[in-house]
Amino acid sequence: MEKVEKADIKSMTLKELQDWLGQQGEPAFRGKQLFSWIHEKFVSSFDEMTNLPKTMREKLMGSTIWTVHQPLQVLTSQLDQTKKFLFGLQDGNVIESVYMQYKHGNSVCISTQVGCRMGCKFCASTLEGLVRNLTAAEMLEQIYSVQRITGERISHVVLMGSGEPLDNFYHVLKFLKLISCENGLHISQRNITISTCGLVEQIRQLAAECVQCTLALSLHAPDNETRKELMPIAYRYPLQDVLDACRYYFEKTGRRITFEYSLVAGINDNKQEAVKLAHCVRGLNCHINLIPVNPIKERDYKQSDKIKIRQFKQTLETFGLQVTVRREMGRDIQGACGQLRRSFIKQQAGGN
Ligand code: SAH
Hints:
Layout: H1 14-23, H2 29-39, H3 54-63, E1 70-76, E2 83-88, E3 94-102, E4 105-109, E5 113-115, E6 130-133, H4 136-150, E7 156-159, H5 169-180, E8 192-196, H6 200-208, E9 214-218, H7 224-230, H8 233-236, H9 239-253, E10 257-263, H10 271-280, E11 286-292, H11 306-318, E12 323-325, H12 339-348
Parallel strand pairs: 4-7, 7-8, 8-9, 9-10, 10-11, 11-12
Antiparallel strand pairs: 1-2, 2-3, 3-4, 5-6
Helix pairs in contact: 1-2, 4-5, 6-9, 10-11
The chain binds S-adenosyl-L-homocysteine.
S-adenosyl-L-homocysteine binds next to β8 and β10.
């Protein structure tokens, strides 16, 4: 018997859903109803879709992929109420998402891939490489699950969890369309930040899509040599090309660029690097976010001390740059990218 592929309805735009339902012989108005149950009411089962006929719900159950994440662990920080979620996917993989409360609203940091293949030296998410891309539904569902569990509305999203968003371009773009769609959660793209290690072609492609998201570029070094030491992607794309792509993104979208710079003691945190960094970003409408590196046990990178961090910030400020030092949220609950997932997998395997 021919195997019929199940439809990933949670990853479909309203138009796609309407077309698909049409092919199933359902009337067009059912599309809006179904879309609303999924993306406005965030139901976790077909049973809750009370205005759809039972026969239709049963049919949907058999013919679609129904993406709902299972919360395997929820850790709440005693320091700042940040919550870290470990979600189980249908194929047994696990991913993590982080919920943070700010004055300006509630934010979720989502994963875009299971694992990552970018190989940044200080990052726990990439230690075992890429397992697979997440679908748009699997990204959305991280936000919907957090809303269901906390009962709070999410107004901001950052694509800064495990994975390289621009290495999963198709699904990420789909996700952006769905999360900002007026028939869905309707989060303004201006409240969404995409963090990338700097995939040049994809940054340009994203700009050409005329999105309104903030681009956060993981720079981490002001010259090619130091960057190569920390980020293998620097062998592929010279710093100048990355910066040119950022300029292009700003020209196309009018959105100020954020540069992320993780400070690693003795490697990229000296005054000379701060001066070089200021020269790198000269003339670019940007903001610099300094991140004290969060040490992972697999590497012996150390966090710069407080004085060094302050000096680095001050040097940048003398060039008129806007600089913030990222507040460490949820440090007591394995805040660094990919740490919780790794320790969970090891525990399951009986390791330590
Ligand atoms: N792949 C994307 C998203 C990754 S995570 C990217 O590279 O931007 C978001 C940010 O956290 C990136 O700037 C990443 O380099 C940084 N990061 C990851 N692990 C870190 C750690 N242990 N300490 C400090 N920054 C880290």
